[in-house]
Amino acid sequence: MPSPAGHRTPSAVNRRGFLKTSLGGSAALVAAPTLVSWLGAADAKAATAPLAFVDDYKTNVLTNLTPETNAVVRILGGMAEVWKTGSAWNTGAPLRPEVLRANMRYCARVTSARTEAQAKEAFLYDRQHQSYSVIAGLGPLADLYKAGAKAVTSITSAPDTTPPTTISDAVPAGAPAGSAIGAGSHTSDLGQVAKLVDTVRGPFASSNPGKFAYQYPRPWRMNEDSQVVDTGRTDAFGFPVYDSKVIVAPQLLRQRGSSPAEDGGYPSGHTNAIHLAALAFAYAVPERFQELVTRAFELSHTRIVSGMHSTVDVIGGRVMATALAAAALADPANAELKKAARAQALAYFTGKTGTTADTLFTYAHSDAADRYADRRANARAVEPRLTYVLTREGRNQPLTVPKGAEVLLETRLPYLDAAQRREVLRTTALPAGYVLLDGFEQWGRLNLFAAADGYGSFDSDVTVTLDAAAGGFHAADAWRNDIDGRGGLTKKGTGTLTLTGHNRYTGGTVVEDGVLVSASAHALGHGDVRVLGGTVRIDEPVQVHGVFAQEAGTLEPTLRAGRHKAVLTVTRRVVLGKGSVLSLRLDEEKPPAAGSTVRVIGAPALRGQFDRVELNSDTLRAVPVHTADGLSVRLLKR
């Protein structure tokens, strides 16, 4: 990537010019470019503890190329554990050759197996404006967004072979007046959203300072031993030929940088831009949060498929983008903009689709042709790309969530307070021990895909309050992670919370108000369940590992034909209070027939009885049948 006009490419000092600096508790070698005279302690920051990234992100400019002076270089410090920057772009050396060798071998394997269709796709996303490429993550809302934002692109297909010149995105001829590439026009119906995306990708979000600081070459300039070997030959386009097994997509040969010193690989600029745009869109349209994160990982992977970047480059781009997005969204200067963008997106999409804040999520996931419709497939795509070739080493260390990171979940989990969102990030984070993820503040350990599904652990008691009147995620949400921990869950408020994971938390579950939906066999964890009010809805047969005590409120099980086990199985005893209600729902697809007896509760002991038994049927009535091992109901015609 060429440097800005007038900027001289910095060169790093020789081996004696490397200093040891404390990054995230470990010593790391850090290159000291001669452009910045920090060896003489000219910068006062070198003598003080570093500021939190979100308070220091505006130091990411080309005049700052050390961890002491540049917050991005600082958080990318894990790279200094595996790579020693040399005096020039091609004189660096691996400090952890096994990591960098695995990196190059992965890239060589992927590019050698690349199909023609994948090469064309890689060209498309290399040349297309990154913000525009991310829009597809909006799924059923994508075309509506493009129309409302007047977002366009001139890169809609890829050539079969190498184009004769470089190609850049632009507003195509014939596009509607006011159209813009990228996220769209700031004066459009979605102008605040487009402005938010562009602001998050603002003047302090460049990857160039990191590239100049670390000077790690692109994979096509290196062989699998991670050492640059110039063969002395040039290709048909005048580019040097290196002993490399990484094969650049033929469509991109003309698009490569011709000045190696100004074209570093780490961190990947495209990856940084892609994730920045995705997180800005996800803030404004949280109904597609997880799908936008998946889209960012998918697009970033094409950087490796293309041969233009390696796995470590892509990891670095994601790490810096996560931190930069949080910094921009947490910046008080952007508080009104982010609020306006979210409000504008909600109003625009509900207006165009005839939905409400409560039903927009369903519409946004209503297209079976949506390439991100399958959450499990999305998880399978994201998980290996969080770490790529990195292997875990050492013992796990607890994560202190970086300051301000909780803002990334502000619209996705709006019913939680800032401390709770930090707990979600902490309990869903990757473990320590991945060298490139363990830099200063450990931004690389955050797993935003998992965080969108709520807590990963209740390490202490959690109280969640959802408000049906507030709409959207305030009114209803689902936590899909497998939740463990010693703490318990208390559900308050009029809204609905659904638990779908294989949960093992041991602190018990209390329902005071609203609806708690149990949607898996172990949704309610390991511990007692107390219903003080509200409703416990059981969509799938569930086991309670303890006591089930219903003092008031409603138990709402779903009855399905062909089930032989109880809808609610309790390992200890069931205690029913005088104000308790049993409200039976018949499964819409396979309802039990008239005359059948259905097991509702299975338990070693049952004390008390329901004050009232209801059934959502105009043709059937339910008659309770108490048995030695629980409660059944006989369905009779009215």
From TrEMBL:
Keywords on record: Signal
PROSITE patterns to which the protein is assigned, alphabetical: TAT (PS51318)
Residue ranges constituting the Phosphatidic acid phosphatase type 2/haloperoxidase domain according to the UniProt record: 192-329
Gene3D superfamilies: Phosphatidic acid phosphatase type 2/haloperoxidase
UniProt keyword Cell membrane present: no
Lineage: superkingdom: Bacteria
Protein name as annotated: Phosphoesterase
Lineage of the organism: Bacteria, Bacillati, Actinomycetota, Actinomycetes, Kitasatosporales
